[in-house]
Design brief:
The strands form four sheets. Strands 1, 2, 3, 4, 11 and 12 form a six-stranded antiparallel beta sheet that branches. The chain is of the alpha+beta class. The two termini are about 20 Å apart. Strand 1 and strand 2 form a beta hairpin. The chain is built from 17 helices and 18 strands. It folds into two domains: about 240 residues, no CATH class; about 120 residues, no CATH class.
Length: about 400
Amino acid sequence: MFLQRRRFLFYFTLVLSFASCCDQIIDAKPAIDGKSVTTAKEPVWKSSPGPWGDLEIRAVYLEAPDSLITTFPKPNSTTRWCFPKATEASLRELCEKASLPAATRERLLNPQRMLVQEGIITLFPQLEDLEALTSDQRSVIYNELAKSPLNEYQKDPVFIAGGDLEDWLRETHLSPQSREMIRKMTWRRGNALVFSDISALLSQAQNDLEVQNIFKTTTRTRTLLVNLKVQNGVDLKSLAEYWTASGRFTDDLPLLESAANRNSVTELDITHLLPFIPRRRLYTYPTADLATRGRLPDCHWTSLNFFNEFSQNYYLDTRLASNDLMENYLPVNPAYTYGDVIVFLNTAGQAIHSCVFIADDIVFTKNGENSLTPWVLMQLKDVKDIYLNGPDWHLQGYRLKPEQKLTLNFK
């Protein structure tokens, strides 16, 4: 009880502090868990009406910290396109499909700039040809390259969530030349705006600092800051029913009750309403101590540990994670509610991604096992753009099986 009371006082102090400085966050560079986050004159929007209450939402960008960036090997500055099991004839067909000019095709397929080894044809496009590609031409070629893990940044490109490139570029430390190259070299993977030509950027870097800035920028991840606005007279029982998952997680009850009893409007960062593990991980990057069993936490570990007090690392085994989902969750259709796991499935029934529904169109997600991908809040539509890049995918919701629910009584 003492620990719960002390935790409440700590959270409530944070809330009051956050409310007093919320106007400053728009123009400042706040730090979330010690990491630099940039904001601009960003739009602030309201959630749709729902049982989650009155939410105010804004977007910010996370970048991996320097301590993590320095440990990663940087990509080669020479652009390589690798085509396993390709022939010169099939590559000419691809160039024609992309409507490349004849002169570009001849330069790309010049035998002196082509490596054929162990059934793989590797091309080395020149920078001027890379920059001259249109977005449509790049999409045709890069979607083909994305079929092979040999083409790392076509298979796993840099996603520009929301599709707003200028917002993504704002307040980066890139040179004007690098910014312009990125503008020329973005392409579409399905509905997502993406960037893959990191090697081309690095080839123009003038020094180690610029290399560092380029690589750091490619880790930029759009996430959301979400405030719940609570005012006196709000239907506290309904609000608490939602944010405790029908009494399953009750640590935030004192905070909600105190906020509702104040005479003025209280803005609560919903981070303080999340269970322990997502509250601890949100806006952070995986640390080396999390690499249990030789693997870092992925999306399924993140989703299935959402309500757990202690993380269960056997979820790193996809088979065991799937078994847990089948045994302890019930399939549900929209409308989703707080804590529902949303699984992205292909036609073979394979789960390629999962995330946790928070409210409105907001989900808690970790997009990949890579240590350069943080835990974030995103709009579900942006997550769909990353993973649903074809017609053969669909979403399925899962909800924890009912447990004994607490009776929520308030004065």
